[in-house]
Amino acid sequence: MYQYRETFDTLQPRWPVLYSLHPYAKVLPVSDRPIPSVATIGQGSLVTPSTPPYQRKPAPRTTVPGEDVVDSREFEEYGLDIISFMHELEEKALPNQFLSHPMTHIHWSDRVKLLVWLIQVHQEYNLTQETLYLTVNTIDRVCSRFFVRRDQYQLIGITALWTAAKYEENHGRVPSLKSLCQLCRYGYVEQDFVRMERFILRLLNFDLGGPTCEAFLKTRCKQLKNIDAESLAVARYLMELTLVTGTGCFITRRPSIIASASVAFAEYVFGRPHLLSYGQWQDHDVYQCVVDMMRYVKTRDVAIEPVRRKYSNPRYIRAVERVDRWILSTTYVDLTYATFFIV
C-alpha cells in the first residue's frame, strides 16, 4: 500500500497563514508575497524580530538529507516498548538459515551482481534507505522459501524493489512499469512484473513490514542521543557494504545486530568509543559483527565500488573518505576482547 507523506508542495498553500503571526510583518498582496523555494531550505539565516516571516530561512539541518525528524520525547516515553516490538517483528522477517550455503543454481556472485545493480537503480530513482533494505529482505525471504531459477532472479529482484517502493515511498517516486521494462532492456513485459508481484505477496502472506537495518539504526541513534551526522553517514556506509559481501557472512545476522555494529564501528572511527554506553561490546554477536566489518571494509572488491561512489558524494558527507583516512592511520584495533592487525 502507498503511504501518504506531506511534502513541501502540500504545505505550500498554508504559507499565507503565517503572514499574520508576526506583529512587525509587512503584509503584501498575495501576488507579491515570495514563497520560499525548496532550494533555500537548509541554508539558514539570522532571524531578527523585524524579519518578516515570509523572508525567513529555516535553520540549517543537522542530520543527513532524507533523515526523518522525530521528537526525542516520544522515544523516551515509548522507547522500550518500541524496541521490544521491533525485535518481535525482526524474528518473523528473518530469512531461513540455509541461505548461508550457496544454492544449486544461484551462487553468491549472482546475488552480489543483482544487489549492486539494484543499489544503482535505487540511487537513480533517489529512493529511501528503508526501500533498499526492505528490497533485500524480500529477495532473501523469497529465495529461502522458493526454488528460484537463474533466469527468474533479476525479475524477482526488480519486482521486490518495485513492491518495496510502493510500501515506503511517495506516489511520485515509485517506478512505473514502463521504467521497469526499460531497466531490464525489455527482457520482460509489464505483465511479468505484475504476476511476480502477486506471487511474492502470496508467498510472504502479504507480510512486508519487518524492521530493517535502517529502522534499527535510527532507534540506536535515539538511544545514544549524541550521534552526529558524520557518524550516521559512516554507519550507513558500513551497513550498505554488508549487502554486497561475497561470502554471505552478514545475511543471517539480525538487522539489529548489523545496525548496532555499524554505529559502534562509526564511533570508533571518529575516536569516540566512550560514547557507547549501552554495552555493545558485551554482546558477542555485535562484537563479532564489528570484527567482520573491520576486516571487510579494507577490501577493494569490484563489487563495492558502486557503494563507495555513492558515499563519496557530499550528500553523504563523504563517508568513504573518512573511513579510508582511518584505515591509513590505523595499524591495529583494540576491541577490549582482542587486538588484531588490519591486513
Descriptive account of the structure:
With 343 residues, the chain is mostly helical. The protein has helices spanning 8-11, 72-92, 108-124, 129-145, 150-168, 177-183, 190-203, 213-224, 229-241, 255-269, 284-296, 305-310, 319-329, and strands spanning 332-334, 339-341. The chain has a two-stranded antiparallel sheet. β1 (332-334) and β2 (339-341) form a beta hairpin. The model is unreliable at 1-66, 275-281 and 336-343 (pLDDT under 50).
State the low-pLDDT regions, or none: 1-66, 275-281, 336-343
Q: What is the overall pLDDT average?
A: 75
Distance between the termini: 47 Å
Class per helix and strand makeup: mainly alpha
What is the helical fraction, as a range of percent? 40-55%
Strand runs, count: 2
Q: Which strand order spans the largest sheet, edge to edge or round the barrel?
A: 1-2
What's the story with the biggest beta sheet?
Answer: 2 strands, antiparallel
Structure annotation, total helices: 13
SSE string: HHHHHHHHHHHHHEE
Shape: globular
* Cα-atom radius of gyration: 22 Å
Strand content: under 5%
